[in-house]
Structure prediction request, 778 residues.
Amino acid sequence: MSAPTTPRVTSTPPRPPTTPTAGTDTTRPRRRRGRVTSRDHRLLPYLLLAPAVVMELLIHIVPMLVGIWMSFVRLTKFFLANWSAAPWAGLGNYRLALDLNSSIGAKLLQSFLVTIAFSVAAVVLSWGLGMMAAVALQQPFRGRGIVRTLFLVPYALPAYAGILTWNFMFQRDTGLINHVLADNLHLVGDRPFWLLGSNAFTSLVVVAVWRLWPFAFLTIMAGLQSVPTELYEAASVDGAGNLRSWRSITLPSLRPVNIVLVLVLFLWTFSDFNTPYVLFGTAQPPAGDLVSFHIYNASFLTWNFGIGAAMSVLLLLFLMVLTAAYLIVTNRRSSRA
Amino acid sequence: MTRRAFLAAASISALALGVTACSSGSTTSSGGGATGAGATLTYWASNQGTSLDNDKQVLTPVLNAFTKQTGVKVNLEVIGWNDLQTRIQTAITSGSGPDVLNIGNTWASSLQATGAFLPYDSAAMTAIGGKDKFVKAALDTGGMAGQDPTSVPLYGLAYGLYYNKAMFKAAGLNPPTTWEDMVAAAKKLTVPAKQRYGFSLAAGSYTENVHFAFINGSQNGGEWFDAAGKPTFTSDQNVQGVLRYLDLMQTDKVVNPSNAQYDNGTKAVNDFASGKVAMILNQNNADNSIVSNGMKSSEYGVVPFPSPSGGQKIATFIAGINLSVMKTTKSKDAALSFVKYMTSAETQKTLDKPFAALPVLQGETPVFTDNSVEAKTFQDIYATMSKPLPLVAAEDQFESTVGKAMSALFAKVATGGTVSAADVKSALKDAQDQVTAATGG
Prediction:
């Protein structure tokens, strides 16, 4: 396996001026085409970074700061056309969101717990399926390319089209799922609801895993490329079975990949808005009430953007604390190892 | 090109892209002259026909005639009901939106409170033809009492009880005049084994649910807001009214539990038109969908939505669509002349038929159906058995919170749970708390 080439960095010292060849004007210092001067060295990194920084500021940072400001004011429909006139509420919105005695606070907490359960289930299943598929497809076989492509299809499909199709499939009377379960396989007698009631949680997890596991598969597959095959050969010579070599070779080698992968999967599923929005439409069941959609409901439907912003800031703080803790724990283990 | 020049050009174009993307878009109208001629208006229409395409087909010739008359071009966009409220909110927040738009008339007071719509003061009213041309009850829905309205009526709508004549005749039933009669008839016509039910309800649609919360509550004499504008959702009359509606699925069992998944009224109408159910509760614009699904106008009849014996004779709220102009419009004169055109007698007559609307102008006869009995029934309902939804700023929040609470209760019933009066009261209390918090009360 060839080592990855390091990117060429333009930090080489400037070449001393060469003796001019005959025929060129020697009195004027002429810059050779493509030659980088010392002035360019200082500017170049900034020029390269500038578009990305500007975009980040405009699209992420500034709206986030506006959102944080919004959480401290009472921004309701009366001030929607003129934001700066909204009255200051201090921590009032936060107190309302965290007041577990009020229905708003209690519902937010319940939605939060549902989201944690959903994220854990979705991440575990996605990662598990991705790992199994990547290990199974590690050895080349006839048709491996086709299987890989098929596996990646759910991730490549436009989100709305895929989730909307699942909505049709989950319909109680006319959907494919109940048709197969009840009419063809006779597994259930009474056709269950999939988009209402407690089954809504299962539907949500199924759709989320369907969309997410190809990404886990792709990432782990890429990570597996860098595991040297000699290790597996040495292990089989020593008499290790498949499971043992997976546990002792594959997993530790994939550790850096897995750390990032699990974190990213968790953050994505936790703040997932598309899946509940498209799957359930306006009839949101409490068993599938994810916190992102809950916040949208609390702000857009009641035109109370102040409290929606407060809930969003709380969500942001929670995820930041969780990420920090996760990174500290995983780093400490690697420094001990 | 040197590397440096290339990089500079790349950064500048990226910056320029970013700035143009983030500049607040102005309203997409171009200002015209004093008369507005040569201007372009953007018009957001709501879904009144059988589909968004159908609306476009109906409106385009009408708008072209307006352009021919005045020289003002109109860019039409038809928006479905599940998106319309959010689109309007975004337009208000960003300051960039249409010039003229349809709104559900029940949202008029709430939208008026945002201050984003042009009030029809006496000058504007004169420009659109004067306020006396409108039916008074319809005009009253245009905004809060005591203030200049920010919307004028465009289409009138009222709820009615549609029943399948053949099914009723076969079972020897007469069209019901009280709630109890209606439930008894529905029970007789419900055969779950044959997938035949007495009623089809849009039990997953928050807009439909809240309409019936209001009508049923009003039949009991309940109010949803007090004189000071504070929500009074949890009164016994309202709780019992809501429970009575839920019981159609829960205890009377005349509604298919799957209806809890129906998130818009068209699905229920289709069930009626295909003979799966005997009755539906719908606004008079259901006629188009029913007929386009194959049922003939002679095969169904309409009666007012009945009250329980001894209850108040309220069969509908004053439903309809109003027309508003956004303050941010760049062509105020063109917009007002457009409103005048849309609310003129000729245009109204043209549009009332395909959109199955009741007339909002005084002295007009309904043209939405050829069935004169049905036309008279609806006109009577609209004029004598109607009550306006609360004309308060928090009206749209009332609709979304109470409506969603009812959808959740229906879902509970459909998936095998039970809902008692106490459950209804607690759900309505939650809704009330949300509205109180949002109005800063």
Chain A is about 65% helix and 0% strand. The radius of gyration of chain A is 27 Å. The domain at 104-303 of chain A is CATH 1.10.3720.10 (MetI-like fold). Chain A touches chain B through 48 residues (CB under 8 Å).
